[in-house]
Amino acid sequence: MASPAPRPAADEVRPPAGPPAPVGTRARWSTVPLVVRHLVLAAGALAAVLLLIAATDTVNTMRIAAVGYSVLAIAGLQVLIGASGQVSLGHGAFMFIGAYTVALLVIRLPMLPLWVNLLITVAVSAAAGVVVGGATARLHGPYLAGATLALAVGLPSLAVRFPELLGGGNGLAFTTRGAPPALAATVSTAQWQAAAVWFTVLLALTVLATVSRGRLGRRMRAVRDDPLAAAAAGIPVGRTKVAAFVLSACCGGLAGACQGYLLGTATPSSFTLALSLSLLAALVFGGMGSLWGALWGGAALVYLEVWAEDAAHALSLGTSVTNNLPIVLFGLILIVVVLLRPDGVHGAVRDAAGAVRRAR
Question: Does the record carry Nuclease as a key word (predicted)?
Answer without folding.
Answer: no
